[in-house]
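ok here's the first one, seq then struct tokens
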Amino acid sequence: MERQEKRKIWSWVSYDMGNSVFAVTVMAGFFPIFFKSYWSGDAAASLSTARLGYAVSFASLFVALAAPLLGTFSDNKSNKRFFLALFASFGFLCTASLSLIGAGGWVWAILAYCGAISGFYLANIFYDSLLVNLVGPTKRAWVSSLGYAFGYLSGGLVFAINVWMTLSPQTFGLFDITTAVKVSFLFAALFWALGTWVCFSGVPEKSDNKPRQDNLKATWKTLKSTFQTVKQHRPAWTFLLSYWLYIDVVNTLVVMAVDYGMSLGFESKDLILALLMVQWIGFPAALGVAKLGEKFSVKKALLLCLAVYGFVCIWATLLEQKWEFFLLAGLIGLTQGGIQALSRSYYANLIPENQAGEFFGFYNMLGKFATILGPLLVATVGLVAHALFGEQGLGIAHLDSRLGFGSLLVPLCIGAWVFIKSTTMAPSQP
């Protein structure tokens, strides 16, 4: 590989390394804890969970609606890098602003967080699209995996440092845990900004020279055509429905698990250590689950992963001890990466090879924006349960939070059932 090509690839990978720090430190880690204990400290657990759940659902819905239009502009005259930098900058500036919000300021925290995750998801659209012109088709899978692997590594390493900083703030010359968490938000913004700058300056972009006024109309026609084409392939279409349902649960567990643990009264340091454990288990486990798919068939391995997630949802409603939370975190770490990889490979075997680009474009859009139903369900069921049963919860501690989190079992089971149905109409899978 030429030196210049290596530089372009590592510049592209650097963005994944930067924004992964935000995904782990802010989205999955400190924001849910800080939001419940610091910004919504005077609210009931079910209410703070509802606030977070609705915020995540709203931001995800906004991105889902805006993505097709923004994707149109990304195809115009070499402006993918511009929109990547624009939305990433908006995201990491919103992230940095979290460090300025005082206790009780849950409204400002929600607004800043919605801005940060919207910038994160929207910037990823343009980041992913840069891969097409970066390397040829034979190298794209390897380069994409490189970004995923080093994103996992950088996210885990920086998060470990941030966890150390919150557990021992005096070691870093900080006053208390609150200051340490706010500094962690700044760290996440800084790494995200650094990755954005390296990617923007080091990754070139080819222009297609399409006229802007014609491209918008053409893009909507393409989206409609692709939608109709996918619907005609019933095995692929049915699998996509199942995928959207169960991957929504997987993604919801990432963004809501720490909040749920807080609702049950677990200490924040234990929840953070459990999340850190998920990070370190996840990457090698993804490779191991993929091997299971090769040995026993992708279908069987996927069903095993879905069964594990069903077990997690059921046991989560019965949680009492700290060791149980760690055990469930370990189970999620073992299956989280594997279910993503297996879903992609299973889908690849369902679609026509000469239309892979169209079909995977639809698949990726569903995967990116499948964090709407789950948080909305958790928030709504939790609020309804709190209104019906009150604080006492029929003598069951934190019944409202337990029922809210347990409601994830519904879309998961429906998704698993639809997946099983899809296998009866699909060609045999290896």
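and now the second one, same deal
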Amino acid sequence: MRLPDYIITAQTNLLRTKLRTFLTISAFVIGTFTLGMVTAFTQGLRTYVNTQLNAYGQSNEIIVKVGATAQQISASGVPYYQPARQITQSTSVGLRDKTPLYSLNQNDLSTIRATSGIVAAYPDYQSLKIDFVEAHNSTKYVFQAQSAFPGQTTTLDVGSFPTANQANGLVLPYSYVEAFGYQTASQALNQKLTMQITSPISGQVKSYTGLVTGVLPDTVHQPLAYLSTQLMTEMNQFQNGSNNTFSDIVAFSSLNSTPNSRSEIKSALQAKGYQVQTYDNLIANFSRPLNIVQAGLTGFAAIALLAATIGIVNTLLMSVLERTQEIGLLKALGMRRIGITFIYLVEAASIGFWGGLVGVVLSYVLGLIANPILGRTLFKGIGSAHILTYPLPWMAAIVIGAIVIGLMAGTLPAIRAGRLDPIEALRRE
């Protein structure tokens, strides 16, 4: 017999006991459907998390702050005064307790740029305080911004980051699109916005004009806007009177750098007394709880598949008992033991295939129905990413895994059928 003949024969044999086959396949459908939904949910969450994080940085971006060593805190916990550093901000420890954070300076910038693996590093003036932003004399809104450094590749919803020729370029967070009355993010492009800042030194007020070149994607938490480096530097100079100190330094490794190489850069900077955070750290922090959830949900699917596996063994063993005389006749007519065994293995694989295929298709159909509903209700306002996604390789792996499980479950009945003695089988009623 050729392989197509084995497949046709196996399907015919399964249809002899339609109800039993249907129930066995249904058990498998439950398991693969659950596994398909778990996969769709976790993969959707991963895609969504990556989309959210892309609004806050890029894979080769490294944030450097003053570390504990450079802060030079005394044994009693009181920080030493450092003429070369200023206190840029304080972190809350208790209701009234504050831990000072020191600024970085040009010496720090030179040190970081000289670190192996760093291709560029820029001062970040996050201490800059913008009074408000407005568009064409509209309502004034609170506004926070960071520098848009050369070579920035953070994902945008529309537009692009300011080029070297766009000294007043600006990238808006998505939430400001609706606030300014634009119907779509594209309508915000090339619009002029006015920003006002106040100098605490002189008390003077000054306005700056920014041109919208891009819009960040819709995210749960609102990221900072991006201003061209030149505009950010000018505003900081006016407000603080100097650009020699900054809250942190943003460094970049090469675009094709690997997590291992970025980890080495992080270790080198920490050895120099700096506090370092990489994009990989952000991904790891969000992925860890997601992996735990995925493992737990996959465990439930595995239990359902185990029950289905027992059902396959039971179905095929009963089939061997019911078709004992038929097996004896086939052997008497010359069919070899391997042929009998192979028929039952194909039947087992068929149960796994149909159970896996139907389970994956049902989960996909449910996703088509659920995604729009979830987008309008539970996950409203978190962006355009589907919370249930079905990557083809993952879905194919579920079907293939179901076939493999079916083959494993059918091995014992298939071997038993192949070992039947033809004479004894023909005598049995």
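notes on #2: The first helix runs from residue 3 to 16. Residues 90-96 have pLDDT under 50 and may be disordered.
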